[in-house]
Amino acid sequence: MATAASSGGHQYVSVKLESPRLAALDLAPHLFGSHPVAGSWDPSKALPMERAADAIWELSSVLPSRHETMDFKLVLKPKAGSSQCIVEEGPNRPLGSGSNEVEMTDAVFKLSEKDALECKVWVETEMLSPFDLAASWKAHQENIQPSRVRGTYDVVMGADSKSRAKNDFASGLELDLEKYVVPTTPNMGSGVVYAANLTENPRFLLDTGISSNNDTIKGISHNLVKGDAPPNHYTNTMKDVDGRHAPSQEGQRAVFVDRGVGSPRFARPKNETISTSNIKQGSEAKGMPAAEGAVAAAAVADQMYGPKEDRKLVIVLVGLPARGKTFTAAKLTRYLRWLGHETKHFNVGKYRRLKHGTNQTADFFRGDNKEGVEARNEVAVLAMEDMLSWMEEGGQVGICDATNSTRNRRNMLMKMAEGKCKIIFVETICNDQDVLERNIRLKVQQSPDYAEQTDFEAGVRDFKERLAYYEKVYEPVKEGSYIKMIDMVSGNGGQLQINNISGYLPGRIVFFLVNCHLTPRPILLTRHGESLDNVRGRIGGDSSLSETGEVYSRKLASFVEKRLKSERTASIWTSTLQRTISTAHPIIGFPKVGFHL
Ligand SMILES: Nc1ncnc2c1ncn2[C@@H]1O[C@H](COP(=O)(O)OP(=O)(O)OP(=O)(O)O)[C@@H](O)[C@H]1O
Ligand SMILES: O=P(O)(O)OC[C@H]1O[C@](O)(CO)[C@@H](O)[C@@H]1O
User: Fold this and answer.
1) What percent of the chain has pLDDT over 70?
2) Which end of the chain has fewer CB atoms surrounding its CB within 10 Å, N or C?
3) What whole-number distance in Å separates Cα of residue 579 and Cα of residue 545?
């Protein structure tokens, strides 16, 4: 077999052996070879081949990209384990990487001096696309026997799953209906990670090797100055270029399963080392974690062709305390990252706590407390400097999360960003007293500022006092490019005011904020009903529903009607494939949207 140079993808390998005579012998075919995965030429570690049909045995796997060349041989092992193994005659079989081919040869096993067993052997190799891998992996996860027939989207369900499908497709749903309990709104109290804790860590701490996502950590000197120690925060953790933790160099692994659904993460070849110079600084959020296809393409196009100033953007939050700034910033960060933009969230409150400790009283936030104002400005500068440095290193969108409640403060930030990036202010305004009261109580419950306050009501009083000091000096945004979110959570729709906003990315941000809401709402997910292809044992294709599938769709309609009867604004989303449209067809009373997935 020819060996080809690596082309970088994963390689599907299937070895089949055919011998009508073998079944009658007390011998089981195995494969062993030079690679540790195939036993390093130790027959006792040879991989057993599975009986695929009367006279056919098979073994298949996905091998890691750029796997080393492997030589292998077939060996017959006695089922009883007494007599010796019989290794096939002739030279080793080489298995290269990067090739797509099927090779048919014979294997000859000397059973005795006078008796030889001849078998036909097919070795099939194929480079796998990520779609192939994903489909196989999905099938594996769902405990469905993957296909023995090659072809994209051609994953075949085993006989078991077929009967399981018949019995369970619709009945499970009825059961759910009886037992269904409408989930209550999650309790935001205990167990919730305070969103600000998850934001960026100040570099002045990282530079000293201290790193934490928890700004209540003890033992941090609050007087550390920038540059105290050489930067080492990117050398501590081994990460690969995608920002994932690098696997240990334990040698290659491959899991032999049918149609090669192996371990989704393969170790790198031994000779490929990961050096920290490969790691782009600030790349934890690198890449496009979830967005694929069109969305990612739009993001890339934006980065390539968008106006220059859109490529680096600072979103400066503005607003009185407890107006949902951190909440909005966290959501926006997740959305922008999903779109494929490198985004980081810098919370000035976290900087303040790490530099000055957690227990400042309301007094610290008084507008006429010169020391307090200076201390707050100092940490705001540190956060902004960190953000700008990160942008120079390749970051695209920085979110500066603080009250930024005075014009002076905002001017200072604009000066710092001058010529480096565009600034958009996002101001959250809330006049609904009920919402505010709830927010304040939540803040006292969650904020590390009150972690040591044992008297909850005293905490609430302190926070209200802090708020009153902020109100005295607060100057709503009237300058620059801004988006104002006004009473977006009071349930009456609210308002979004925008000024001087243009460009692809700012446009996406406006779109996102318009659609931002706080009211919990259910999202129901369902598979399509059984399709005709499923009946034939196939996943995929675009066939219509089977009878069982139709029954499922009717039961689903009755479920949805009951479950969503009080959800006035619900809509039904399907793909554009027949089986999903037909599954949703009997549901009435809700608008339907078909998405090309
Ligand atoms: N647009 C909004 N208006 C009012 N409340 C909101 C809004 N968005 C989210 N909230 C609610 O406000 C609560 C407090 O939010 P958050 O901690 O984000 O406030 P904050 O403005 O960052 O406060 P602080 O300035 O004190 O850090 C959230 O738990 C959320 O329920
Ligand atoms: O320095 P500024 O703009 O007041 O904003 C940061 C402050 O805002 C707050 O979130 C207000 O509660 C504090 O935690 C934080 O110190």
Assistant:
1) 66
2) C
3) 6
Minimum CA distance residue for ligand 2 atom 1: 376
Q: Which of 325, 286, 486 is nearest to 404 (CA)?
A: 325
d(CA 329, CA 335): 10
For residue range 433-462, what is the model confidence (pLDDT) as tens digits? 999 999 999 999 989 999 989 999 999 999
- For the segment(s) 10-128, the CATH number from 3.90.1640.10, 2.30.29.30, 2.60.40.10, 2.30.30.40 is 2.60.40.10
Q: What is the CA(322)–ligand 1 centre distance, in A?
A: 5
pLDDT digits (tens, 9 = 90+) for 517-555: 777 777 889 999 999 989 888 888 899 999 999 999 999
Is residue 275 within 8 A of residue 268, CB to CB? The reply is no
Fold of 195-234+282-512: Rossmann fold (3.40.50)
Q: For ligand 1, what atom is nearest to the CA of residue 466?
A: 26
Cα four-point dihedral sign 569, 573, 578, 579: negative
CA of 442 to the centre of ligand 1 (A): 9
Q: How far is the CA of 331 from the centre of ligand 2 (A)?
A: 19
Question: Model ipTM?
Answer: 0.95
Residues lining ligand 2, judged by CB closer than 6 Å?
321, 348-349, 352, 376, 380, 402-405, 409
What the block records as the tokens of 81 is: 């384990």
User: Which DSSP symbol is given to 69?
Assistant: P
Q: Which residue minimizes the CA distance to atom 2 of ligand 1?
A: 324
37 vs 472 pLDDT, higher one: 472
Q: Which residue's CA is the nearest one to ligand 1's atom 12?
A: 324
Place of tokens 């099927």: 102
Structure tokens at 246: 């690098």
| Nearest ligand 1 atom, CA 188 | 29
Domain locations in the chain? 10-128, 129-185+520-597, 195-234+282-512
Point out which residues pair with 316 in neighbouring strands: 400, 425
